[in-house]
Structures are given as C-alpha cells and as structure tokens.
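fwd from M.: "can u put these together and see what the complex looks like"

so here's what she sent:
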Amino acid sequence: MTEVTVVQETHDNSGFNREVLMNLGPQHPSTHGVLRLLLQMDGEIIERVDPHIGLLHRGTEKLAEHFTYTQIFPLTDRLDYLCPPSNNLGFALAVEKLLGIEAPVRAQYIRVIMAELSRISGHLLITGALPMDVGAMTSLLYTMREREMVMDLLEMISGVRMHTSFCRVGGVREDLPPGCTERIIEFCDIFTNRIADYEKLLLHNRIFLARVENIGNISARHAVALGLSGPNLRASGVDWDIRRDAPYEIYDRLEFEVITRKDGDCFDRWKCRVDEMRQSLRMIRQCVEQMPEGPVIVDDPKIAFPVDKDKLAHSMETHIHHFELAAFGFKVPAGEVYQAIEAPKGELGYYIISDGSEKPFRFKVRAPSFVNLQALCEHTTNMKYLADVIAMLGSLDPVMAEVDK
Amino acid sequence: MEREFFLLLATVATGSGFLVVVAKDPIHSALALVACFVQIAALFILLGAPFLAVIQIFVYVGAVMVLFLFVIMMLNVRQEALTRFIPSGAIAAFVVTLVLAVEMGLLLSWSSDLHQLMAPAAEPPSVNALSLALFQDYLLPFEVASVILLVALVGAVILARDDEKADASPRRALHPAQGRVPGRVATPDTMPDILPDNGPDTGREPDNGPGTSGGMRR
Amino acid sequence: MESIIVILPLLVKMGIVVAVLLLLPLPLTWLERKIAAHIQQRPGPMRVGWHGLLQPLADAIKLLTKEDHIPMDADRLLFKMAPVVALVPPFVVFVAIPFGEPVQIFGSSYTLALSDMNVGLLFILAVSGIGVFGVILAGWASNSKYAVLGSLRSIAQMISYEIPMGFSVIGVVMLAGSMNLSDIVHAQDGLWNIVYQPIGFFVFFVAGLAEAQRIPFDLPEAEGDLGAGYHTEYSGIRFSLFMLAEYVVMVVLALLNALLFFGGWLGAPPFLPPALWLLLKTGFFIWVFMWFRFTFPRYRYDQLMSIGWKVLLPLSLLNILISGIFMF
C-alpha cells in the first residue's frame, strides 16, 4: 500500500500544508477489487477523487480477436464474474444478429432464466456489500447465504457455479435437467421472504440511513450525461430499461415493472437493486410457466452441433460439418454489429466487426461498470467525507474485472 | 520510604522536564512533558492530595496534552522543527536561564527549612473542603474566571468560523452546496426533455475536458 | 516486617489482576468470534479443540511468532512505545476497582481491591483518558496516512466523548455523595442506580461505546475506509498488544456499567459469591458490546461528533439538573 503512495502536499497561499494525497487501494477492503483511488483531502474532507484503473486488465478484447466465436464465451464469463450468464447472453445475441439467426424459443427462455438468476446473484452482493462498507458486517453474510442458493441452481443447470459458459451461438448447450424448474420455483418462494428480511434489517436502521441517504446524489441530467445505465441510472429517476424499451429474447412476453427512484443517492441505488430482485423473481416465475417444449439450439449444422447425435454415425455430411465446427469454428458473414442487453450492472454492449472468418476482426465490450465508475468524481455528487466515497463506490457497484476488461 | 519515592519521582520529573527542552522532535518533547506531569501527579499523592493528583492527570495529561499533540500532528512540524523560532534565540534563552538560576539559588540560600515544603498536609484536603473554598470563599474569582474562559471559547469559535467563510479557494465551488449557479444549467442537445429535474444540480457539466478532470497534479 | 505484611497481599492481588487481564482476551476473542458466527448463521471456529476452544491459543501463537515489521520511515522509538502506552492505562485502572466486600482469610481482613481510594471514579476516568496517547503515538510514529487519519479521528472522538461520560456519572456521584466506588455500590442497596439514572446510564453507555471504539463508533479503525486505522502498520506481538488493550478497555467499561448503574455485587442470589455476580453482570455488558458490533453499521465522522456534542452532552447536563432537582 505504501510504496505507491504519492507523498505530496499542495501549498496554498498561506504556505500552510492542508491538503494531503491519500492512496486508497489497490489493496483495500472497500475498493471491491483492485481499484486505486487517489484522494486529495483536506483532513477528512474530500477535495478530489481520481480513480486509477487498469490493474486487472487482461486484454479480453485483444484476446478475443484470436479466438473463435465459441471460444469467446469463457472470456465473457470473466467480465462481470458475478453474473456470467448475462454476459454470455449478450455476446450470443450479438453474433446471432450478425448471422441473422435466432435461438429456439425454449433456449431463449432458459437464457432469460439464467440471466435473471445471475442478476439476483449480482444484486445480492451489493445488497450486502454496501451495508458492510458502512460497517454492518452481518448483512453480507446473509446475502452470501442466498447467493449460494443461486449458485447451486446455476450449477444444476450448467454444471459450473461461477463461469457457466452455458450459452452457445444459436441456443444453449443443453436442456434444463429434470427437476430443475421445481427447484427454481422453490428458490423463488424462499427468496421472496429473504428480501423482506434484508429490508427489515436495514430499511429502518437509522445509522444505515444516515450513512447512505442524501449521500452521493446524482441528478437525472448528470446520470444521462455521464452515460450511466442500469440501476444507477434508474435510481436517479430516468425510466430506461433495455429489457422493456428495446426488448431482446422473450422479455416482451414478460410482465415486469421497471423500478425507478427519485433522488439518485446511495440509498436509492441500493433500494433500486433490492426491488429489482423482486422483479427478477417475477420474471423467473413467468418464464418457468410459459416455457414451451422444444429444441434448445438451432438446427443448422454449420453453426451448431447436431441435436440428434445419431446422425453422426449415419451421415457423412453431418460428420464433415461436425469436424469443421469442432476444428475451425463457424464462419460469420462480414459486417459489424452492436448488441446491448440490460446486464445487472447496466447496458452491456458488444460491438463486433467480422471479416467473414471464424474469428472476430474487432471485439469491443461496452462494460457498464466502466462507465458507471465515472460517477465517482466529486464534482458531480455531494460527497464530502472520506467515508462518503466508500459508500458512493459501494453503491455504484463496479466490478473491477469488467472495468478493466 | 516516602523520601526515596520523592527523590525518584522528582528526579524523573526533572529529567523529563529537561527532555522537553532538549528534544528535537516536538512530539518527543510533548511526550516528555506528559511524563513530567504524571510525576507531578504522583508527587501530589505523596503529599496526601489524591484529588489534586487525579485532576492533574485529568486536565493536563488527558486534555491539554492531547490537544497539544493533536495540533502538532495536524500541522506538519517535522520540517519546521529544525528551524529556529526566534533568530538568535540562544542568547535570550541563556539570559533567562541565568536569571532563573540566580533566583533559585537566592531562594535556596534564604529559606532555611526546606523540609517543610515537602511535608504532607496535616489533614488531607477533602473534595468537600475544596468545593467549599471554590464555591463559597472564592466564588467571585471563580465565576469571573469561568466567564473569561467562556468569552475565550466564543472568541475562538468566531475566529474559526470567519476563517471558514473567508476561505474562498476554488475547491469550494466543487461542492454543489456552495457552487450552485441557478439558471445556468447547460443541457446537452441530445438530452431528452422528459428527464425529471431532481437532485443537486451543480450547474456544471460532468465532463470538464482533460484539463480539469484529468490526472492529478504531480 | 510490617511492611511485608502490607505489601505481600498487594503483590498477590496485583499478580492476580495482571494475570487475569493478560489471559482474558483468549476466551473473549473466542466468545466474540462465536457470537459473530451465530449472529451470522455460521458455525465459527470449529477445528482447534472442542468447538474451536483452542483457536485463540493458535491465534496467539501465530501473532507472537509473526514478523515484527516496522515501516521504513517510522519513528522507531515511538513506534515501539505506542502499544505499551496503549496497554498500561487500562491495566492501571484496575487499581481502583473493587470487586466486593472485604473478605476474611485466616482471621485477617482483605479488601477485594488494590486500593479502595476516595477518588476512585475520578481516577478511573482520568487514567483511562491516558490510553489515547498510545493511539496518538501509533498513528504518528507509523508514518502512514491511514494511521494518522485513524489516530486523529480517535483523538477527536475520545476528547469529545470523555466530557459527556464524565458528566453522566455526576448524577451517580450525587446520589452516593462520594466518588469511592465501594460507597457508590453501597448507595445502591435496595434500588439500583439504573432506576434513578436512566438518562445517565444511557449517556454513559453510549459514550463508553465510543471510548472503547466499538461499533457504531469504531471510526478510528474503520475497516471500510481506513484499512485498520491507527494500527494499520503494526504486526505480530505489537499488534496483539493493541488488541489486548482494546479488550481490557471493553472489560473496564462493562465493569463500570455494572458497578455504577447495576448495583455492582449487590443483589446476588444466595448461591453465588458476590464477586462472581459482579462478573456475571460484566459478562452481560461484554456480550451486549459484541452483539452491537455485529448488528450496527458505523457512523460517519461528522455524525459521530454531532451526536457527542449535540445529543449526549445536553442530555448529560439535563441529567445533572434533574438529579439536582430531585435531591433538593
């Protein structure tokens, strides 16, 4: 921590040292990863916040140029590692748009269920982590308990807890296992009460409210001007949700409310997410009800492995396609595409330029956390004290893996 | 045994008092002063005045010295410690020391019965006696002193407040509460009109270009 | 010879107090971790010994054998002094705390206190105020901004909360007519002070939380924003000395709460020795402190200050006024 500290005091006219530069992070309990904040402070009062990012840069975008489209899915997993299924979904949609295909309806439902489950998992973290940043340790342990249930569900569906990579271009890898929908409904029943528990614990806690209410207000204008998205934008009162306003997959068939709040302070950002978890539960229930039977991946031998594995033994053509697909991947027609989805953190966009080969020519991720982090500059909000910066950072909920890509 | 204790405490008190003057680091000398005060408190106990001893610790060690240290830490005096406060102060200091030494020597030679000074009070002064003295016999001086202290307190508060107001450094404008400029909200052309007008409007655009919101001054 | 008879019991008592206080953090850390675990619906330490009973021992060995790291530009002398300065005052406080009525052993009477002094309460408040020097020195000597900020916070906090704390016990002193702790306990024969002094107890309890730097007032070591506050740079045995000091301060405050407002050793059920009854009450307050720690968030610096000066101080003055009116 100390070796990178820039020890510099600025002198004002009196020649009296007042301002101190403090280095918060990259190894710090409240920076949610490896964010480094240079704070210019006058005692406890924050003069300027200067986020330094890039400590977790893994070159995702450059790496992707050397991977086939299927191989990129694991890379997207590692963007926002709290909710890989929605990252997968966004990328799959982008490539499908380029290919001009659409996944079968059942696959779309499965993807949406997983995306909403992962939204719950992502929001659960901040539901517990913001109170922990302001000192209430126990809430995080409670939310982690429920997050474990989500993880179990994801594991049941995909076989992996964290980096699911369950989406494929043109569908999902396989169908839901038997008994899965019952487990999901059971989770929905339990979790509804648990959300009420969190609110009971924190909503009327005076100390918690004193720490987050009217701290870090972002007005609607600033939120838009900064390019915020997701719950951070909606907490400021801007009624914008890609799931409703530019629906993808089967979101237009689902009934849900877009949660907005008025003040755009830390509390609103927190509450917005808590309420969104309720809506997610509602969507998951509807998905389970509406989900039709059918294939889970497109029946196109050039893009996806055949649904009917027996064909491999009988048809030479299928065999050749299978080999080509496994060895080289599928070709995507030349062109460029931008596809955005409403990821838990906000607008997650994939911009892909294809030159007609199996690998993208250019791959760009519009990561919501990266943009949201911009709001952490002191002149757009009313943060005043060091502890407010922590609350603000916690409520913006950036995932550093996604910020640094 | 009391005599030995007295000698021990007095020696340590004198030694730490000497350290106060000699120590280069102001924090060190402040700490030496703390040690000195504690010894004096112990001397009070030896003289049969535990109440005074405790008050000594309470007020001088627990409050005054803590504030001293607070101020020393707030101002970064590590550099200034080496520069002299008064130019050619050494001569003045020497003169004062000399005068004090002469004074002390004279006193020592004049007073024949020194042992009386360190004899404990015949009856340990109780809290009752002290409070009677303060609130009955010397009520007027006590009240006057408290009024003077109050005035000093109010004066200090006013001084601090004025300082706060006069402080018009540019950073103040960064906080929305102070830097609000009503009616001069610059709206980007693309911004839809449906946006609710809420929250603190700083009247500034978040993006101030690389000049203002960029890296730190180095 | 006579001096030996006077000094020997004193030495024995001192030995017992110091030994108990040095060993006390072992069960207390275990208790704290277990309470935390059960509040958070997890088992807590389970591996070392029955239900992790030996875990504190393992932790102690770990802390004692760790590298003693001193930062490069630290003030080495003060850095080494700070933990000791922090540790000594809470121990010294026990000089003035009585644990019960004098007991008869082999025909001679022994008081259950090192010194049942007349200004006991004042002595305790004064000496526990010295503890802040350890924090100041640690923050200053570490040459780290986190540590300095932490120690600045704690200085401001301790000065601010010492005042309502001192004022809140004035009501108790008025009722007992003495600052001797034994007299204060005796004055509660019949009805405990909590009945007469609810406001005083509230102020004392809250200010005590702040003095001990427990949540919701643990700003000096606020993990969320300062890493570990004033002991950020400490490791190994020096760090454990700070921990020890923290636990002893907590015990002192719990004891004072029990002595001043909950009748001390009075009102013990017949099958319990009074001293044990007092310790039980103390244990209850320690449990409350721990319970708070895992339930509340922490206040912000300015909020903490305004609570101290704008709520607790007027309340404690009001308490003095009310007590005065009733006694008159």
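replying to her w this: The mean pLDDT of chain B is 71.
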